[in-house]
Amino acid sequence: MPSTKPNKKKIFNDPVYGFVSIPDELHFDIIEHPYFQRLRRIKQLGLTHLVYPGALHTRFQHSLGAMHLMQYAIGVLKAKGQVISAEEAQAASLAILLHDLGHAPYSHTLEKAIAHHISHEELSILFMRRLNKYFNGRLEMANAIFNGSYPKKFLHQLVSSQLDMDRIDYLKRDSFFSGVSDGTISDERLISMLDVADDRLVVEAKGIYSVEKFIIARRLMYWQVYLHKTVLAAEFMLMNVLKRARQLTQSGVELFASPALAFFLKHDLNTAELENHDSALDYFAALDDFDIFFALKMWTNHSDKTLAYLSKSIVNRQLFKVELSNQVFEQEYVDNLKSKITADFHDFNQATEYLFIQESTSNNAYNPGHSSINILFKNGETMDISQASDQLNISMLAKPVVKNFICYPKPEN
Amino acid sequence: MPSTKPNKKKIFNDPVYGFVSIPDELHFDIIEHPYFQRLRRIKQLGLTHLVYPGALHTRFQHSLGAMHLMQYAIGVLKAKGQVISAEEAQAASLAILLHDLGHAPYSHTLEKAIAHHISHEELSILFMRRLNKYFNGRLEMANAIFNGSYPKKFLHQLVSSQLDMDRIDYLKRDSFFSGVSDGTISDERLISMLDVADDRLVVEAKGIYSVEKFIIARRLMYWQVYLHKTVLAAEFMLMNVLKRARQLTQSGVELFASPALAFFLKHDLNTAELENHDSALDYFAALDDFDIFFALKMWTNHSDKTLAYLSKSIVNRQLFKVELSNQVFEQEYVDNLKSKITADFHDFNQATEYLFIQESTSNNAYNPGHSSINILFKNGETMDISQASDQLNISMLAKPVVKNFICYPKPEN
Amino acid sequence: MPSTKPNKKKIFNDPVYGFVSIPDELHFDIIEHPYFQRLRRIKQLGLTHLVYPGALHTRFQHSLGAMHLMQYAIGVLKAKGQVISAEEAQAASLAILLHDLGHAPYSHTLEKAIAHHISHEELSILFMRRLNKYFNGRLEMANAIFNGSYPKKFLHQLVSSQLDMDRIDYLKRDSFFSGVSDGTISDERLISMLDVADDRLVVEAKGIYSVEKFIIARRLMYWQVYLHKTVLAAEFMLMNVLKRARQLTQSGVELFASPALAFFLKHDLNTAELENHDSALDYFAALDDFDIFFALKMWTNHSDKTLAYLSKSIVNRQLFKVELSNQVFEQEYVDNLKSKITADFHDFNQATEYLFIQESTSNNAYNPGHSSINILFKNGETMDISQASDQLNISMLAKPVVKNFICYPKPEN
Amino acid sequence: MPSTKPNKKKIFNDPVYGFVSIPDELHFDIIEHPYFQRLRRIKQLGLTHLVYPGALHTRFQHSLGAMHLMQYAIGVLKAKGQVISAEEAQAASLAILLHDLGHAPYSHTLEKAIAHHISHEELSILFMRRLNKYFNGRLEMANAIFNGSYPKKFLHQLVSSQLDMDRIDYLKRDSFFSGVSDGTISDERLISMLDVADDRLVVEAKGIYSVEKFIIARRLMYWQVYLHKTVLAAEFMLMNVLKRARQLTQSGVELFASPALAFFLKHDLNTAELENHDSALDYFAALDDFDIFFALKMWTNHSDKTLAYLSKSIVNRQLFKVELSNQVFEQEYVDNLKSKITADFHDFNQATEYLFIQESTSNNAYNPGHSSINILFKNGETMDISQASDQLNISMLAKPVVKNFICYPKPEN
């Protein structure tokens, strides 16, 4: 059990907000826990720094930032007369602090390549349960808020909805560290406009333009950063190198891996198995960016040509060429490319399976539905932003944009 | 004639961009001219500072800022292989430097209340002609670029179009000084994406999200700042106090006014008259924020109750109540309000004419048409942004939004 | 008496801090009062904008900013266990809100030229007394904190000392708006390090470097902005034009002046007279930047050549040449310059008295003494920063630097 | 040999400066080289992020930033009439781009623990020679500027002196990412004041306050960040864990290490050996943060208790307690602490050698001497800043401040 030491009031320096204060000892002790410290070693944006060199910030920073915003949001809502007890305020803050505990390193990639039956939210819940035990049940309410079972629904929405503290922090932070200043949003203004109506989070009518701006900024970040074609190339290359490593491992080829990585290369668990397999969660808790990237460095010299080639390409940033299109690529074009790859890499085993990627990605800037953003008018009525906006065609923003892409070694590489 | 002194390389400190350098002596001498110095005394946003106290920046700062952006834009275009001679670069820079010379103080208001037959662009042209004579014809090309007669049309578009240096600077600057950080835009990114195709300014395809963001930011600034209802109230009150002053003047009542203001209260000139009436332009050149606001201060003690009441209300910031609506206000509601005003201000002459305002305002975020924003694709094709944007319904943004409002003394005042 | 209206929670947008919240109704009502609204029309830095065009911010903005910092400081001290009642917190906040009420327009200049027997602090006290009556004694404690008679001395130090909220805000704000980014300080960090020991404000030991940086930044702002030689030139020219106006007025020459300005050109009151002369304070309350600068504009056409020449020079920014020296200027050099002025302006009356300025200015970056900055060590001891700093020779910074300067029309003007 | 591809004009997004442009193809090809890409995997500030979580920026970002400043500086000097050929400008830019090539991961620590006979400057020179060969001698002039043999000495000073682009970028960048905003400096202002006199870099007299501020900011960053006591603790723990690993390796105990790390744990080379030992430099080029930190992760389970304990403490951020003092610690106090450690860790081998650290650190904010900062006065004279500053006692800043510290496991851990 964590000891009760005096003077645990800690302040973090944060380039985004200036100062982030830790509100109480329980927060402090959780931050000190190895589960939380691990987030220091998981970059928020995986390989994005290969395109935006500043994007090295971690889920540790993001979690603290989201907690900081939660303190502010709770204060705003209380000042508007919403009843939120001290215990609820603490629990909401803890819920957001812990919301990313279940993230794998290079998560979007690894969720697919390794832990592909399990979402990071499910994993976060598993870790929060463990921590709850460790902290003698003091995280009960936080867990309830996180998983949506707590009666006051708006507290859950502060943690997870289309205008939650998670999104506000990550948009602001990703924009800040990537240097894509166009994606920035005014966290303070947005949060100051929040209110609660019928137990649901709403935005005051005068905040409608800020919400529009938020949606547009999110859309911009998607196309400019999260789905930037070179970032996608790097991520798919990483996915394929891990797929190859897994295939080699499972067919008995030796390759370097940390114990944690080795476990996941060998096994293929779903959430239930993971939950019941005690050491599996321990392995997960030991996995971070260092396991993955260091393995790549080791694999650059492996005798398997595919593994070595892909690893070297990522480490030295010789990334694949990407073609993007609104249409599906013509089969003939694709076949030609594949033939060329087969020829160029004739001494590779199954070259096109690992060196040619054909995928599609989609994004909709706004998702109307159960976690929609509602606008509160002065007469007390609420309305979905897609109705309330007098001009911005948010219903159009809600339509997913699908982009097809193919990805393969640059001719000269 | 301006002397030729050594060391006229001057750098201005600008909170927005850091440093703004004056590129050459001709720029320097123009900045020193009283016509340009007058812009130091004309706030960019008139009475907006009554709502956003930081919005005290002047057309002087804005003109220098737009000139700064022009230097950057010219550099970007030349680096992309566009042919722009040193003389053209200088002329484009001078054209944007001088583009606001014809602004009246509290211009949106005064253009209506005083100089209502004349646009500030027409006046800018008159002043630029005078300066051209003074500088022995050295502003010839700048004037041609400004009025659109210069062959390379894209140079004019840098000065005046939907994505010109004027707009980029004023959005950025107005957002900065008002503190409405949501309205900010990334000038550097936008400009770095500019190019020229078929003698027209275009934006590279990868800049499409930044353009969307620019349009949305502009829209946000319109509703949040430029057409903020309290700002509108202040502006209409100012318009009415000047209307009253003009009426009193023309019916022979004595009231304080600077010589320049007195001239415009008395006369009602159109552009042609102004041009031919030499001293009229001199009077205009003498008119600045001090003439207007100081007159208000003097009028607070005038015996005409309407004049005094409106002046006092502005000076002490006891602004009218504003009601805004998408619909036209019901006649009965309006009549009731007017009756109440007539009763409350029974000792005023024509109370409702000056104390009740009923207007509508409209804004469209984007104007397709001859100065539309075109996107340049990699295959060399260009397309209007409203077609090119795959999701944002810009055609919808192009539809003007009309808002009706009424404005009258607060009950308790 | 101010009415009690609902919903007076107001938030100002501030480019420096983002949002500034008005904590309660009393603050709100005071801000609405014409005495406070007048501060909107008094620029913080007088004519400095002639050198730094962004420096147009007002004492209104500064007063709100300092109030904002006070809220933060009170919160920090309470979190460290200092006992501050809600009433004391409000009073300290009101005291700083009102601390600049007694400032004249272009204050450094006008204090010398017009109200030269009265300090702005004395005038602030007079206004605060009046407001206290108007608000039925609710400003009693605020006044006591302001004038230093309240028992808890550290509250007064928050309002007025070498590390008070006034200085922290003005340094930060002046640096921000002038664009002299080197002068910026970290308000949040500095304030977060404050504590109280023996009823005196102290800085925690780990804040020592931030205090040093604060002192250096202040010094930099002095020499780079407040005592910038062109700013000094403009200020002395303004002082002389007002001296001339006063002399003309008192010798019966007619010249334009607003009633308030006319009063001060005619009379020469000390604090006691001002206090007892009821309308004098009213005149003062009517005086703002518009009275002064508008008068200059009118005087540009006055028949008195000195008055007209100086006025025109300021309005069109044709400022005097300034020479600065650590030594006193040689008499012969000065005499030669004066002779030249007498010759060049032979048709002026007493040319050198108004067109030649010889002054000295001094500044010390740090003032040890009763309001010194004390450092609190972990063992509970406190020490003056000039002793505590292990390396920075703050005692040296305490030695005033004296600079001599002369100022006269540029040869070519 | 690098191919000559079209369109290598690349722009990096940088949160610090906005955009950083790659000036030409040679720069581009060097940046693509694995030697330079390796800098992506070396954090600028080692373990500092354990205290300032944002401080994750890399030497890659810093090198690009310094190159960006160099472009600006060259432009400033040329605008002031200094003759700098296009070739020299390119070479100076390349020299600064490559100046950090020889840095080891966690460099301050590793220079001591592993490569302790070799400075990173010497290593940079070795790598630059190799690159020069690879690029067919095109880096000849860059190398000469870097090592100081190029005739125009001021070019070397831009790369390495007390006011070089290296320092200006790292101060600005470290302040930015650590969030210690007090340490920021105005790069643009400082550089705009540079000039050359007698082939030496000088600062114009009006820049004296900015230089003072720069020195003070650097001092602040030293005590607040670089020598922050918890950072020091982490660094010394890392140093000791590597010392232990080296001792175990050399006495034949097996422990995990990447090939590169293993090489340096086994060998103990000086510069000459490194230069002649071809694969040694290859090993060095393969060493980055991942090798070190991943090894720590693996060692947490090693059977050697010291190795495991120290590794675990760093990975989970359970850092030693640090005591700092201006005086040398009393022997008795130290002996008591050591006895306690010996008792607490009785089953460790040589506990105090690895778990007790006693060191001293020193820093002087300014170093007068051959690379001193000279101020250029208008009369053409130059003077060392320590003489030129009228008040700041820079000679005092030049005196090194020595701090003693001891560092050992916290009682409760």
Descriptive account of the structure:
4 copies of one chain form a homotetramer. Chain A is 52% helix and 10% strand. Chain A contains 21 helices and 9 strands. In chain A, 52% of the residues are buried. Chain A folds into 2 domains: 249 residues, Orthogonal Bundle (Hypothetical protein af1432); 117 residues, Growth Hormone, Chain: A. In chain A, the strands form 3 sheets. Chain A has a 4-stranded mixed β-sheet. A 3-stranded antiparallel β-sheet of chain A has the order 5-9-6. Chain A has a two-stranded antiparallel sheet with strand order 1-2. Chain A is globular. In chain A, helix 4 crosses helix 7. Chain A is α+β, with helices and mostly antiparallel strands and 413 residues long. The N terminus of chain A is likely disordered.
Number of strands of chain A: 9
Tell me the structural class of chain A.
alpha+beta
Radius of gyration of chain A: 23 Å
Name the CATH superfamily classification of the largest domain in chain A.
Hypothetical protein af1432
The CATH architecture of the largest domain in chain A can be named as Orthogonal Bundle
Side-by-side strand order of the widest sheet of chain A: 3-4-7-8
Order of helices and strands of chain A: EEHHHHHHHHHHEEHHHHHHHEHHEEEHHE
Tell me, briefly, the overall form of chain A.
globular
Strand content of chain A: 5-15%
CATH class of the largest domain in chain A: Mainly Alpha
Mean pLDDT of chain A: 89
Low-confidence runs of chain A (pLDDT<50, min 5 residues)?
Answer: 1-7
Largest interface: A-D, 41 and 41 residues
What is the CATH T-level topology of the largest domain in chain A? Hypothetical protein af1432
Reported for the largest beta sheet of chain A, the result is: 4 strands, mixed
**Annotation field: number of helices of chain A:** 21
Report the end-to-end length of chain A measured between terminal Cα atoms. Answer: 55 Å
Question: What is the subunit arrangement here?
Answer: homotetramer
Helical content class of chain A: 40-55%
Integer count of domains of chain A: 2
